[in-house]
Amino acid sequence: MNPVLVFDIETVPDVESLRRVRDMASGLSDAEVAELAFKERLEKTGSEFLPLHVHQIVAVSCVLRAGDGFRVWSLGELEDSESSLIKRFFEGIEKYTPQLVSWNGGGFDLPVLHYRSLVHGIVAARYWDTGEDDRDFKWNNYISRYHSRHLDLMDVLARYQPRANAPLDEVAQMLGFPGKVGMSGGKVWERYQDGHLSAIRDYCETDVVNTYLVYLRYQLIRGAINADRYDQEVKTARDYIEGLTGEHWQQFLAAWN
Fold first, then answer.
1. C-alpha to C-alpha distance for 54 and 52, rounded to whole angstroms
2. CB neighbours (10 Å) of residue 82?
3. CB within 8 A of 199, min separation 6: which ones?
4. 3-class SS at 46?
């Protein structure tokens, strides 16, 4: 059985690219460039959420379930570049060919990773393979929406109907799991400007654990694991988290019914 890798990214406005594509005055600060982009987007669409190609990745967090092991972590160190984080992510896929699991990864995380790979020229042959190198990838690859090497839980549970999409926070809480703790995605840019990258990584880590726990319930309802195995897998995750330090994990456990 392939390792299961649950992933999530956090992003901020790519002010360098915004300056290039919007021809913004060089005298504007990063915050001013972002605020101008937010304002333009709000006027155009009714939302400040920027197009995916002008997001910059500042955190990539993962849950890895492989063999008897379970691990939660954020890729790289606080000082590492965006390029380094993306390289680490795709190197893991190149080496292990894991089962990828996400919440809205098909609609957000992976497209952003694609655009940022273009920016940095990052090679990821295994990830992009659709059968040219490995015939099995013709019928099951990471790119196709309806293939399973990447499982976008939000997309699958909504039966690929955008109007049926649900937020991870609410689904996790419905199932008795913690949901979001500490902050929300809408606060990432603010915390990033204040230099709180560590808090962003902490938030991203709790999100991937929520996703993993929902994934276990999904595996149960589709018959991939039985009730005893489900209970054991949830216990494995909780036991691991109980051994971690950090305020975000204490908050997470306190919210876990």
1. 5
2. 19
3. 182, 183, 191, 248
4. coil
Instruction: Provide the percentage of residues in the chain whose pLDDT is more than 90.
Output: 92
Q: Alpha-carbon distance 40 to 60, whole Å? A: 28
Q: Which domain holds residue 233?
A: 4-254
pLDDT, averaged per 10 consecutive residues of the chain (257 residues), comes to: 93 94 79 94 96 98 96 97 98 96 98 98 97 96 96 98 97 96 82 94 97 98 98 98 95 92
Identify the burial level of 142 via C-beta atoms within 10 angstroms of its C-beta, where 0-12 means exposed, 13-18 middle and 19 or more buried: buried
- 139's tokens: 């019928």
pLDDT digits (tens, 9 = 90+) for 145-160: 999 999 999 999 999 9
Closest among 178, 165, 240 to 213, alpha carbons compared = 178
Structural domains counted in the chain: 1
